[in-house]
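Supplementary Methods, section 5.1.

A reviewer requested that the exact input to the structure prediction be made available. We therefore reproduce it here, unchanged from the version used in the analyses.
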Amino acid sequence: DVLAPWLDRQFGADVTDQRVFLDLAAHWERDFFEDMDALNVRRPHVLTRVSEYVDDIVRFVQRIIDNGYAYEAEGSVYFDVAAFDAAPGHFYAKLEPGAKGNVELLEDGEGALSTARGKRSSADFALWKVSKPGEPRWPSPWSAGRPGWHIECSAMASEILGAHIDIHTGGSDLTFPHHDNELSQSEAHFGCAQWVNYFLHAGRLDIEGRKMSKSLKNFVTIKQALRTYSMRQIRMLFLLSRWNAPLQFDAKAMEEAVALERLLASFFANVTALLRDADASDARGSRRTCAPELELLRALDAARALVHRALLDSFDTPAAMRAIQDLVARTNAYLQRGRDAIDAQPVRAAAEYVTRMMRVFGMAADGARIGWRADSGSGAEKSPEETLLPVARALSNFRDAVRDLARAGADPARLLQLCDRLRDHDLPPLGVVIDDHGDGRALVKLADPAELRRERERHETAAAAQREAKQRAARDAELKRQARLEKGKQPPADMFRTPDYSAWDARGVPTADAAGEPLSKSKLKKLAKDFDAQLKLHQKYLESLNTDA
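The structure derived from this sequence is encoded cell-by-cell as follows.
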C-alpha cells in the first residue's frame, strides 16, 4: 500500500507491456471468486472482461457519436448530456433527478476527467479516454486509449442481453452518476426510451457504524471475516437485514446471526438423531395423529404462508427468517414431549421445509434433505476405515480403561468420569455428540468436527474471559478492602482533633468551630454521620488485626 504508489509515480510511465495489467486483473479475479466460493455464492453463467470486449465498446461509442449524443475532444470521447437531455423521449438522471449537476458526485465518478480540456460541460462524462504514458491502451478511431468507466457495463451487457434489460443490480452508491450514465448512453445508442425495466440497488455495508472504506481504515476483507465466522454465519447476517437497507457488520450484529445459525444447527442435529432412532426402532408402528401433531402441522402451513408472503414483499428475508425461527421453536416445543410421545412424520416435514428454505438461501448444500449437508452418496465418500476407525479406536480405549477400573475394584464415580471424558473430549473431535436426556437414554448426533472445535474454543475463550473478570473483580475488591483498612487505622475520636474546631463532645464529635461558635444542626448531623462511618472502619481494622494474630 505504501510502496506501490511510489513505484507507480517513479516508473509507471515506462510500463509498455499490456500483460502487466491483464495479469493483475486475473490475480484479483481469482481472489474474488475464491471469496465467492467460500461464501457459497454461485458462479455466473457468463463472465465478461473489458479487455475482451474493447472492439465492441469502440463500435458502441461510435454509434452514440453517429446518433448525435457524443463528441471527440483531444483524443477522448465525451457524452453530450445537454444534447441527450434536450432530445424528445430522453431524460438525464432518471434514477436520481435531484443529483443532476451535483459537482461532487460528478467529480467522484469522473476523477481527473471531470475538468479535462475540451469538455463542453462539467456534466459530460467520458466514453473513451486517451491513455497517458504507462496506462493500458487499445487502438480506436480517436486515440490509443481505454474505455470510460460507465461505457464498459453498457456495451458488455448489451452484447449478452440485447437492446433491453429486465433487471439491473448494483450498490446504492452507484445510482448516480454510474447507473444514470449507463442508462443515458445505452438509450442514446439504441434510440430507445427505456433500456432497463427494474433496478435493484443493494444497501451499503457499514463497519462499526461507518461506511466501509479503505481510506477510513475500517476495511474488513471476506477472508478476514471468515477467520472468525463461518460461511453460514456471514450469510445469516445478510438474511437478517433487508437487501436494500444499510447492513451493519460489527460484533453485536454478528452475535444475533451466530446465535440463530447455532439454533438451526442444533435443531437439525436433534431432529436427525431423533428421526434416526425412530427409523431404527420397531417397538411400535405409526401412532395416531392427535392434537399436538395437528398443531405442529398447522404451524408448518402458517410458516410456509408467512415465508412466501415475506419473499413476495421485496424479498423481506428478515420476516422470512422470523417465521422460520418460530416454526423451529414450535417444533422444539413439540419435541419436549419426549421421544416416546412424538410422531416422527410432522417433525420430519417441518425439518425438511426449514432445510429447503436454507437451500434457497444458500445456507445448505443442494442435496441436503435435513440439515446443512448433502445426504450420503451425493459426493465423494470416505472409506469405512476412514469413517469408522477413529471412532472404533476411541471406544476401544474407553473399553480398556473401563476394564482396568473394574479389575481394580475402583469407585463407580471413576467409571462415570470415564463416560464423561468419552462424551466431552474423545468423541466431539470425531464429529460425534452425545446428549444426555432426562429419560435415561442418550441422543447421539453427528456434527462437523471443525465446527465443534470452534464451538469448544469459543466456550473456552468465554470461560477464560469470565475467570479473568472474576479474578480482576477479586483483585479490585481486595484493593478496596485494603484501602478501607488503611483508612480505618485512625481512631474516630482522633479524626476531628484539628485546628478547625475548638470544642468536642464525649465521643470526639466537634460542637464548635475554631472561633468558638456553635456548629449548625446540619453540620453536627454530617459530622456525626462521618464519625459513625469511621467508627465502623476502625472496628473492621481492629478485627483484621485479631484475625491476623
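The CA atoms of residues 370 and 500 lie 82 Å apart. These observations are discussed further in the main text.
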